């Protein structure tokens, strides 16, 4: 590391004495000696700060137990029982944008009778036919408290055969159903709209097999993602997907919504990693596609129809998934860039130079970082207080600590010399790495604390992505704080517009403009959240009519009575677009 | 590398002086000093041998220009024009097993009229409506000369709109069609069975766009894979798939057959890397799913229906695909293992220890290697003549020459010390790497030269995979040479049974046993070759009736008259299995 030292811009100190081992800042006016003690831009209290980070992380886990952040295996119910629900509601019970959906109940659906209840008790037993109001209240509400159904019944099947019997009966009786996993979705996809029967998958939570030679895991759909991660960790493997909601979300729900998450840039989408599914169709037929083979070209690969169809074509009951071996060397750098073009160039360089060890490339703009610094407790900017326009988080994952570190350092030095990075820090341990990640992952929480927020999850060509943020700022002027962050490596922008209070005039300035702009640039109006109820009628912004018509035909073929998760995913009428 | 040297088992020499820089053999009786000159187990002529390898490679490129091996961009037609066709036929015109398919022409299809020809000339112009007998002879025959159709017409559209017009017309006239790319398939999927109109995609061969930031390539379906590889190479990227047929096969065909190939273990299947498709349906409707986004959760992801459906649901006209950055450091080791269990354990170790740089893990048994050594010119076993039961080829691809090399060497040393490897060599340059690869890739060619061959492409759980080879040997006794090789990392076994001549009694001993055995172990009867005509009726060995019924319903929905690639993929009757 002689070359790095020679720049005179790096700090190195013992992790126990202070926080940031190494600083990259060729432009800093403070040329800082390479010592453990001597650096002077507001980091005098790092140790305490990091303690606060840790305290904060625990707090965060509790506060957001319903949704997008891990909470160490707690279910929503655990939180309620511990009296945490009200606190959660205070923070989250706000309006999150998007024009209200006006939906009429489909009159072809039956309403629940006492005979139905008796029938279900006959199949599932008393305790798995839930009519308790408190439990139904949770099942009827999404974690953002934006959507609220009025279901009177929640069923908890324990086997595929029970799911099959439930659906066969509901189909014959024209009873609409909502499959529900961890209920962590953001688009109203996993809660009833009216009185649909909730089919809760939580009790189907067994690991069926794991093959260490091939890395193939077979499990039931109700397994909580975090539990699978822990199970695999003990075997020396990891799940190919990871997301903030892992403590609540279930693998069946992940697959039904084609969850993206933090590892997509490295391990690809679920369409690539899911090897097989068992699915129950609307009429109760069990479709056994539960292969455990990496290669199988025998006919149409039907499982893909169910990945990302949000429970509207069938209920996923079992899953076979390819899991990568666990790699032990993780490095995280938090960097500042002067402009968006530098972020893009840095991404290209990182793909080429870090190659096989690059595992995340996230970005946030200065307004996003400001929100995190202003609204979350105990968070500190690891960089000096100079204002930078953009921040990038790079993570590498590999199998050799020393080599990976050297490689990342060499890359950062090169990028710094080339002017792509204005400043930066490299985490020295997992606590620091977590703290850096929290600067990026804390943005949604900070936004929710800041006021009303209009949230958009968009995919766009990387080079156009930030233009939308700029245009939105011009459009809204001082009336709103427009924030951009997301998975730059995946071309996924989380556009968030924060205002003190929710109002329809602001919304009218945002929508449909945001969808039209995205559509005009061939983007996706839902990169990873799905369409659910929120965007079912907006599908035409991202998909041509002919394609939507074919989706509708497939839905009709597989679920002629439309009992599976009605009012979601597909538009309520296709005629106006024909 | 002190540790390696300390074993006293390694050879090192200058590549110009001799061939194999480094040998690993802790069990060898010849303890060989680490010098450039002193090693003595039959490698005195290495330089000449490698020269021969190179000569041979050139020869191979010519001989197999029709099919599975690259031929540097030559088309089948080029080969014919250069008088090479007869030579190719002499080698390949043998019987390749599988019970003959008895198919009746579907009487609902029309026969071609002069009005039809006039109509097509009106759309495509004279020269792209081909009736020339010589060209039709090529289009009517698969590269193995096993299947032969009698089409009288080949159409060469240049645009999606032309494909649309052709299909709209054919659908209205009930004229059956066969989409044809490079015609390199092994299961009779890309040639007419009777008089179907051939729709040749070769003229739709333009690269539409390439985005260096995201690595996303958009191109027409008729682009030859090798041309795309070359194009990307100049941009610092690679295709996520590579296969022997790259010199002839087209990306549209690759996608329609869900080609696996050599990079699957590293970059995953096309379901993960293909981001978008444009497809023309049987009725001429153009389905625009040509997204260029890594994430897009807006409705059902319909493109997956067309990946691997062998042209029976629509004709792929354009492709959007994610391409990884090119990594410059490639290492190849050729290793010997005592038993199949060691191969499996080595795979597990390699996944864990080589982690992110592992890019291939292939195996062949001693009978496969013997065939290569006995039937291909100028090939030498880089290992001493001790008989080993199994051979493994490991390839790593990374971004750092020195590090990757050290990592692989450390891994090999560890595996050797643990007894997993009996012997091994590490390639010192690309020529040696190619020569090692040829020991594995040359097996199909050697089999064809050895006599009649019954070929099976199977996916099986890795731990069971070789049991089938053993059982087949017991079953056939001395009457046949049973050979096993394939992509161990993908669980893909190429089971080949070589006999001096083809005869029905041998076949009856092999089939249906091989399919029943595969089915009983939940394997796939076609890992990567597809079903085509050859295995359409055998789909039930790998897929349950309910799943096949759903496939049939989808086929009926998208192609009610069944004009697209008839008699292929799906069984000719489903009733007997209902």
TrEMBL record, chains A, B:
Can you list the GO cellular component terms from the UniProt entry? Answer: mitochondrion
Give cofactor(s), names only: FAD
Which EC number(s) are documented for this chain? 1.1.99.39
Task: Enumerate the spans annotated as FAD-binding PCMH-type domain.
Answer: 147-326
One Gene Ontology molecular-function label: (R)-2-hydroxyglutarate dehydrogenase activity
Keywords, sorted A to Z: FAD, Flavoprotein, Oxidoreductase
Q: Which PANTHER family match?
A: D-2-HYDROXYGLUTARATE DEHYDROGENASE, MITOCHONDRIAL
Q: Which family does it belong to?
A: Belongs to the FAD-binding oxidoreductase/transferase type 4 family.
Q: What is this protein called?
A: D-2-hydroxyglutarate dehydrogenase
